[in-house]
Write a structure and sequence with these properties.
13 strands; 388 residues; seven-stranded parallel sheet; alpha/beta; Rossmann fold
Length: 388
């Protein structure tokens, strides 16, 4: 089977959605799918995966994205694919998979980052004049309202709700194919070595309780709430032996200033980006991910796959993998530092962490190979329908 995959950007440094898409492509190719990847990124082709890089010039980012969409549709229609699978909006697609969630929900959740009503109103005005955002939202809405609309793959129940609530996509056109990550096959000796090396590097003692936060967009992923929660724990003298490592490529200078003002600079360290994230999961005792928006967080799934419990929010599709009080906690409000502090405080208890790690260890992993196989089954069913 030949599949044309349309995705505007595929560079791993851009974030979790791009990294996840790369892993998905790898697994599809291993399942025997011949892929024609149509993208603006400069990614090397390999056996089973032909990459066609589209040069989409233009006077603005909005017009570049619009030009890419048009040129990608033309390229996909010419390449003789059995299925056209779009991750970026496409009017030629048979299958649409918004791996970053819908544009309508993305706009709403970015507005929710503002902590005051006036701030949210200003953000709404800024979004209204954001030409790229408006064009992509319009294109997504137009694609889903076509007379011959694509089958839509939802990474989580949360994304399925977005499709119904924002666009009225009927349930029979939505296929839930839960997100996946690569398995963590490290043995006990390797995990112990990683735990020692990372903790030694960042002066985290063996008996400290280490919370890990992984994010590139610190604002969207709730790093401010995490810092505020650390301050709540400090003021209530409940911080115990807590240490927090924040991994990611954001500009850290303003955040270093914030932890100093909050009086938690001895608890929180910003360590920059890493190419060895698995070692950090092995070093940590739990993941803290108070995100304002994630269609299905890769870092939460990776943490669980590595055997550590996770704290996230109901605005994360990966929350459906977190059993409340058993394998982690799910917050109702990403800005609620007091509740996050309470849940982190519970994680400081040795017996609680031991019980949770045991529960995480026996639950099924969200595996990317399984995810790719389920998508392939959708392709086969769709192909049968198109042949009739």
């Amino acid at each position: 089977m030949k599949v044309a995959l349309i995705v505007e950007w595929l560079d791993g440094w851009r974030g979790g959605a791009e990294t996840s898409t790369q892993q998905f492509i790898h697994e599809l190719a291993d399942l025997g799918v011949r892929l024609e990847v149509i993208t603006r990124s400069h990614i090397a082709s390999r056996p089973g995966v032909a990459v066609q890089t589209i040069r989409a010039g233009g006077p603005s980012r909005a017009l570049q994205s619009l030009r890419f969409s048009r040129l990608a549709d033309q390229a996909a229609s010419r390449c003789g694919a059995d299925v056209i699978h779009a991750i970026s909006p496409s009017l030629a697609a048979n299958v649409y998979q918004p791996r970053g969630g819908t544009y309508a929900e993305t706009i709403l959740r970015n507005r929710a980052l503002r902590r005051t009503r006036a701030g949210r109103m200003l953000k709404h005005l800024a979004q209204h004049v954001n030409l790229k955002q408006r064009l992509l939202l319009k294109l997504e809405r137009r694609m889903l309202a076509r007379p011959d609309p694509p089958v839509v793959l939802a990474l989580s129940d949360y994304v399925a709700r977005q499709l119904r609530d924002h666009y009225g996509v009927p349930a029979e056109r939505i296929r839930k194919v839960f997100n996946g990550v690569q398995a963590d096959d490290a043995d006990a000796a390797t995990r112990a070595q990683h735990r020692h090396e990372v903790r030694e590097l960042y002066a985290v003692r063996a008996d400290d309780v280490l919370a890990l936060c992984v994010a590139h967009n610190f604002h969207l992923k709730g790093v401010r709430t995490l810092i505020d929660a650390a301050a709540v724990l400090r003021s209530s003298r409940r911080q115990g032996a807590l240490k927090i490592l924040v991994v990611g490529k954001a500009r850290t200078a303003p955040w270093v200033g914030l932890v100093r003002r909050r009086g938690v600079d001895d608890l929180v360290q910003f360590v920059g980006p890493t190419q060895r994230i698995q070692q950090f999961y092995h070093a940590a005792d739990f993941l803290a991910h108070p995100t304002f928006y994630d269609p299905c967080s890769r870092v939460v799934l990776e943490a669980l796959a590595s055997g550590i419990p996770a704290i996230t929010t109901r605005y994360d599709g990966a929350a459906e993998m977190v059993s409340e009080g058993q394998t982690g906690f799910v917050l109702d409000a990403p800005e609620d530092a007091a509740t996050l502090a309470d849940r982190m405080g519970r994680m400081l208890d040795d017996a609680t962490r031991t019980r949770m790690r045991a529960a995480v260890g026996i639950q099924p992993a969200a595996d990317m190979r399984r995810h790719a196989a389920e998508v392939l089954a959708v392709y086969h069913n769709l192909r049968k329908g198109l042949a009739r």
